[in-house]
């Protein structure tokens, strides 16, 4: 019951003062009993949002083609970790593995590992995958075994908690969730201040009320994966919405039944996300001495992977209605005014070149 989570959050605020946004997000999303991913069936047309793998099987299949090429580029190791972070219902991995049947040696070498914190989603993933494949579930990236690793994640980074800082005068104050005079959740400024050295250039000129976001949780995930890839060789592919330049602005949002809602209403019942600052992540990889591949938009990436050809094969011999549906799915994934441009592909690897990323 959401009321229980709301009451616990209010009690926490009464005890410790306003919760920094990152803590509020953690309560809402990750609470074992009432957090969003343990209580909701979030994905798909009937859920709160629809992700690319749920739109079309082509998405996971084309990532399967990418994974095989990345594995070959790493020297086709006879044993490697094939890892997905935040696999949702397991649809992407299922489509990936089906497409990978063209390479028996890839499938034989793959130790399939899913990093998932939600028990409910683990059960859905098992229902989708376990009859055909041997899967290992782990809670955290630290538990990935030492071996060459190919790692993928779609719409995972955007769910990780962020801090927001709001400009007042010359200082940037932590945005926090407190309670108003009626005892309802309300935005307040917390006691934390941003270290101005961590702010993007030009912060002095930003107007009062300007917002800066940072996600130590996201940066820690990428840093840990970078270390794994550096130690063992590997390639990582992240697809998410976000911006390529460091900047200012409030990108925090809550979605319920495909609509934007107030993130302070009904904690645990809406999906809380924010846009990914890819430039912050790129710097982490470069500092590790790994190769960041040139950024691509989702649209360009899928087209380079053969989206149109795959759509043609999938539709051949089918009814006009099915062909039309496949065309619409391809457009939704790749057209700039749909998911094609907002979603970016961020890839890094121990090897220099990685298909299909070129300058
Ligand atoms: N990749 C899927 C689902 C995206 S939703 C798709 O594209 O459809 C985010 C996923 O990340 C969910 O599976 C959620 O349970 C998982 N998740 C959220 N926080 C996590 C964390 N800290 N560690 C591991 N998984 C997490």
Task: Describe the fold and architecture.
The structure is a single chain. With 359 residues, the protein is an alpha/beta fold. The protein is 39% helix and 24% strand. It is built from 14 helices and 17 strands. The strands form three sheets. Strands 2, 3, 4, 5, 10, 14, 15, 16 and 17 form a nine-stranded mixed sheet that branches. Strands 1, 6, 7, 8 and 9 form a five-stranded antiparallel sheet that branches. Strands 12-11-13 form a three-stranded antiparallel sheet. Strand 6 and strand 7 form a beta hairpin. Bound molecules: S-adenosyl-L-homocysteine. S-adenosyl-L-homocysteine is lined by residues 37, 43, 51, 53-54, 86-88, 92, 115-118, 121, 154-156, 159.
Based on helices, strands and strand pairing, what is the structural class?
Answer: alpha/beta
List the total number of helices. Answer: 14
Largest sheet: 9 strands, mixed
Distance between the termini: 51 Å
Question: How many DSSP E strands?
Answer: 17
Q: What is the global morphology?
A: globular
Question: Beta fraction of the residues?
Answer: 15-25%
Q: Could you estimate the helical fraction of the residues in percent?
A: 25-40%
pLDDT < 50 runs, ≥5 residues: none
> What integer value in Å does the Rg equal?
21 Å
What binds here, in terms of ligands, is:
S-adenosyl-L-homocysteine
Q: Could you report the average pLDDT, rounded to the nearest whole number?
A: 95
Give the tags.
9-stranded mixed β-sheet, 14 helices, 39% helix, 359 residues, binds S-adenosyl-L-homocysteine, single chain
């Amino acid at each position: 019951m959401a009321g229980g989570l709301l009451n616990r959050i209010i009690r926490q605020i009464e005890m410790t003062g306003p919760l920094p946004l990152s803590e509020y997000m953690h309560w809402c999303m990750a609470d074992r009993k009432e957090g969003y991913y343990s209580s909701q069936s979030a994905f798909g047309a009937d859920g709160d949002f629809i992700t690319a793998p749920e739109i079309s099987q082509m998405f996971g299949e084309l990532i399967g083609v990418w994974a095989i090429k990345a594995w070959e580029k790493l020297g086709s190791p006879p044993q490697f970790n094939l890892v997905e972070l935040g696999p949702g219902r397991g649809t992407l991995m299922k489509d990936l593995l089906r497409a990978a049947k063209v390479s028996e040696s890839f499938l034989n070498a793959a130790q399939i590992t899913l990093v998932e914190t939600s028990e409910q989603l683990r059960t859905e993933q098992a229902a989708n995958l376990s009859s055909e494949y041997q899967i290992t579930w782990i809670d955290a990236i630290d538990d990935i075994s030492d071996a060459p690793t190919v790692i993928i994640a779609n719409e995972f980074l955007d769910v990780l908690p962020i801090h927001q800082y709001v400009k007042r005068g010359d200082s940037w104050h932590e945005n926090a969730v407190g309670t108003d005079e009626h005892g309802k959740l309300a935005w307040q400024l917390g006691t934390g201040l941003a270290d101005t050295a961590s702010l993007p250039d030009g912060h002095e000129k930003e107007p009062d009320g300007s917002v800066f976001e940072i996600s130590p949780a996201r940066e820690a995930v990428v840093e840990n994966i970078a270390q794994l890839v550096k130690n063992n060789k590997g390639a990582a592919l992240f697809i998410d919405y976000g911006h390529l330049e460091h900047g200012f602005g409030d990108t925090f949002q809550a979605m319920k039944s495909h609509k934007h809602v107030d993130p302070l209403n009904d904690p645990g019942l809406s999906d809380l996300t924010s846009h990914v600052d890819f430039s912050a992540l790129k710097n982490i990889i470069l500092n590790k001495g790994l190769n960041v591949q040139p950024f691509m938009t989702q649209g360009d990436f899928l087209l380079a992977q053969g989206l149109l050809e795959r759509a043609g094969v999938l539709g051949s011999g089918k009814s006009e209605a099915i062909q039309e549906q496949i065309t619409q799915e391809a457009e939704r994934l790749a057209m700039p005014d749909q998911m094609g441009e907002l979603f970016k592909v961020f890839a890094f690897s121990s090897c220099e070149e990685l298909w299909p990323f070129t300058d």
